[in-house]
TrEMBL record:
InterPro entries: ADH-like_C (IPR013149), ADH-like_N (IPR013154), ADH_Zn_CS (IPR002328), ER (IPR020843), GroES-like_sf (IPR011032), NAD(P)-bd_dom_sf (IPR036291), Zn_alcohol_dh (IPR050129). Keywords: Metal-binding, Oxidoreductase, Zinc. Signal peptide: none annotated. The lineage of its organism: Bacteria, Bacillati, Bacillota, Capillibacterium. Belongs to the zinc-containing alcohol dehydrogenase family. Residues 16-353 form the Enoyl reductase (ER) domain. It comes from Capillibacterium thermochitinicola. This is Alcohol dehydrogenase catalytic domain-containing protein. GO terms for molecular function: oxidoreductase activity; zinc ion binding. Its cofactor is Zn(2+).
Length: 357
């Protein structure tokens, strides 16, 4: 394929300021490929990076975007896992491969996070990402896309990957369980789908936005609870479980009260998985966990190759992320796309940017 020398990329040039600029097309190194980016999703983490920054962030200007899919157009040295023309989905994190955590398979918690010289990279976070016409990816972070999956759906497959990783953290076995999910955002909705696909008996989704709770019903939730309208999730869960509580609770909200809510929803000996990033310190009575032997887990990102599992589940239509995609924009309108996402214009959920348009 003919590859241009220059491309357009949406770069963070100052805190809170993104500009579309012409830059050089990167050249893949050993173990890397060059991808023509067809679709890149906007995530809440992108907003955090834009407005506040994250540890390991490269010097500005750099290209953001970590949820993307495209076509392999050039192979770096030693690459034989892919060929030019392959349609590929990507995950964010490439561990260094040499620290204790990476060797144990926990590469999203790489001990060399942000150290490019040690081999770590996180697309759009510590290295240039996918809000560009072309992007570099290491083969460790790529998966061939099933024919049934569109670029738009593949771009947000890390949403499902994060959901399956959260389930993986508690053993990956939900058959027959009662599951409560706090927060009907993209990951909360993906969790509802994933839990039902894996055989959960009852899935309860709690939140404050009627439209998102209604979408949750279409995506697998058996029961929804609108806290804003005074509905009581603890009461419902107790009624459904004979007063015992949920077997597993996923906190996908990350607000001040959500961890305490999770502690009130879970049964003795049950599990809580913290999936969301919290906006600041939270205060809870941790004795609610200790006295009742509740297990607390945390996950970051889409580890343990759960993006591959998600692609397979999507191709089988056991999960379907397409209802999450609400808006699409060309790269030149990147700031309008961010505004639509952050201001939730027209009930925006997942916003897709198309670098080739």
């Amino acid at each position: 394929m003919e590859i241009p020398k220059k491309m357009l990329a949406a770069q963070l040039v100052a805190r809170g300021q993104i500009e579309v600029r012409e830059v050089d097309v990167p050249v893949p190194g050993p173990g890397e490929v060059l991808i023509r980016v067809e679709a890149c999703g906007i995530c809440g983490t992108d907003v955090t990076i834009r407005d506040h920054g994250m540890p390991g962030e490269p010097p500005m200007p750099f290209t953001m975007g970590h949820e993307y899919a495209g076509v392999v157009v050039q192979l770096g040295p030693t690459v034989d896992e892919f060929k030019v023309g392959d349609r590929v989905a990507s995950e964010v994190h490439k561990g260094c491969g040499r620290c204790h955590n990476c060797i144990m398979g926990n590469y999203t918690a790489c001990l060399n996070f942000g150290k490019l010289e040690k081999g770590h990279s996180a697309s759009g976070m510590t290295t240039n990402g996918g809000f560009a016409q072309y992007a570099i990816k290491h083969v460790n972070t790529l998966y061939k896309m099933p024919d049934e999956i569109s670029f738009e759906e593949a771009a947000i497959i890390t949403t499902a990957g994060s959901a399956f990783y959260a389930i993986d953290a508690v053993g990956g076995y939900l058959a027959g369980d009662t599951v409560a999910i706090i927060g009907p955002g993209p990951i909360g909705l993906a969790l509802a789908q994933a839990a039902k696909a894996l055989g959960a008996d009852k899935v309860i989704l709690t939140g404050t936005r009627k439209s998102r709770l209604e979408l949750g019903k279409k995506m697998g939730a058996d029961y929804t609870v609108n806290v804003r309208e005074g509905e009581d999730p603890v009461k419902l869960v107790k009624e459904l479980t004979g007063g015992i509580g949920a077997d597993v609770v996923f906190d996908a909200a990350g607000v001040g009260s959500s961890l305490d809510d999770a502690l009130n929803l879970v049964r003795p000996g049950g599990a809580i998985v913290l999936v969301a990033f919290y906006h600041g310190p939270v205060t809870v009575d941790i004795n609610k966990a200790v006295v009742r032997n509740v297990n607390l887990y945390t996950v970051r990102g889409e580890g343990r190759r759960n993006v591959r599992r998600s692609l397979s589940m999507a191709a089988q239509r056991k999960i379907d992320l397409r209802p999450l995609i609400t808006h699409e924009f060309p790269l030149k309108d990147i700031n309008k796309a961010f505004d639509t996402f952050t201001q939730r214009i027209d009930n925006a959920m997942k916003v897709i940017v198309h670098p080739q348009r």
